[in-house]
Amino acid sequence: MPYTNAPDMPAKLARLRERFLVRLSEDLECLQKEADRLVSDDDGGALCSAYHRLHRLAGSAGTFGMPDVGRTARALEKVLKPVACIEDESRLDSGHKARLFEELSSGLQVLRSLAGHQTSSAHDPSLDKANVFDRTRLEGKQARLLIVDEDTDRASLLCRELSSYGFDSLEVSVDAMMTAIDCAENSGVVALLASPVKVPKVRTVRNSSSDPAILRLPIFAVGGHDSFDNRYELAENGARGFFPDPIQLPELVERIEKLSADQARGTRGRVILVEDDPDLAEHYRLVLHLAGIDVRIVNDPTRLLSDMAAFRPDLVLMDVQLDGYSGVHLARMIRFDAQWLSLPIIYLSSEDDPDIQLDALSKGADDFLMKPVSDDYLVRSVQIRCLRARLLSDLMNQDSLTGLLKHSLIKQTLEQEVARCRRDGHTSAVVMLDLDHFKTVNDTWGHMVGDTVIKSLANLLRNRLRETDLIGRYGGEEFLVVMPGCDLDDAERVMQDIAASFSALAFTAGQDRFHVTLSAGIAAIHALSTADESLNAADTALYRRKYNGRNGVTVFRSGPQNAPQEAH
Ligand SMILES: Nc1nc2c(ncn2[C@@H]2O[C@H](COP(=O)(O)OP(=O)(O)OP(=O)(O)O)[C@@H](O)[C@H]2O)c(=O)[nH]1
Questions:
Q1: Could you tell me if the CB of 476 is within 6 A of ligand 1?
Q2: Which residues form the HPt domain (predicted)?
Q3: N or C, fewer C-beta in 10 Å, the chain?
Q4: Could you report the per-residue pLDDT of 424-475, keeping only the tens digit for each?
């Protein structure tokens, strides 16, 4: 796993490993004392604490690069398991205790020798990959789209047209693109290869990821003629999509958007980690954080429910044996709350007895990850589950045509923003947008072409607005945008720019080429006291804009004049 954007991560992980080594030598000392107590007069509780110590060691040593220590600890744990923590240790006769002492002592000898071979600077091969790649850098610029086209005029036109949709595009040579393939992991970069440039064959050389490198830089072929042979060759060489001549730009943009959304979903996620071993928890947190996953560690289970309410996780990773608590009971407790019924809960456990695993799963969790879990396996398992959780929540919250928030959710967002403005005193804007004469578009070119226009505006808004802005489809051809931390002047400037770009987009239907415009009304959320008042103000401004000629932006400015002001 490369340490993207995190040059200090290898050092942090190495520090955690050093801490683990110190703890390991303390644990070995304690285990020896516990073994000695077995054959002394004062043996009460020795078996139980040795068992728990070995269990913890078995689950954590592998994570810190010491799988042999983990395996030996697990073997010893199994020896103690049948007798550990029995109510009355005096029921064990002295012969039995002596045999346990022998087994434990020779196991400890092995553990000491394995630990002796570890040095604090012990080599962790995964650290070699550190800091390999920041973001795609080509000629000093950062780009989301790389355009490879032998025809420079056509490439410039495509660049310009795509930048109207808000994409940063860069014209590059095939060689430069091939360089980007090797370093474009997770960067959300897409390459567009214009015919007759051929998609380079999928390479079998693999690096840190198990995917062929080319699959990590998605390539869309654009232009050229449409035939089965052409499509087959492109598919064979690893292209992700094909847009033959004449290139339907809205379709291409939509595919790029969808790919980016899938990639973002696939790598992001919010995870609550319930783990009482602080070093192990921190190790998992760092590893997941590197993969773009936000982690909140809960080491005090009494704070679990309040942390979940505040953090809104996509997934819970839960240690099964916590200090004084059982992860199984905690999982069941989480399910008391209807809002968490479908939340994935995964146990992290060193329990390898399938019956016990099954029993634990039947009590509220969805899966087991066996400790020690490798960093790569942990990241992949979490990513897959976060992706599924996000797809499900998107299905519930997003409008199917545009992928924007549904009406009820964007209204709810506005209400939250009104409350935040009142609480923090910051400025925010709300915008109501509506396509102009859209009925004519549908009547002239049909509903499907109308849908393409709606989707194009959605894509433009997504690309042009900040990530923190919230965009919803408010009605058929009406959109609502909430811009937190944005004052009226900035909102007006951004919306004028978007209105101008939108009117410049050329749509095609058969032989026809046409343009569509939009009208927008803007109001200041902080100047009004309720969400409904903000909506009414934005709607009044929009109405005024429609009345005064459409294709532009009107701002509702509260004050003595309390009247909308025009901006074209
Ligand atoms: N293609 C398509 N059309 C839609 C959708 N939702 C609403 N519409 C159409 O949008 C059009 C809205 O028409 P009107 O409310 O008369 O507004 P307009 O023609 O845009 O006129 P102004 O808003 O006054 O500029 C109607 O024809 C609806 O059928 C949709 O999801 N897809």
A1: yes
A2: 9-118
A3: C
A4: 888 999 999 999 999 999 999 999 899 989 999 998 998 889 888 999 999 9
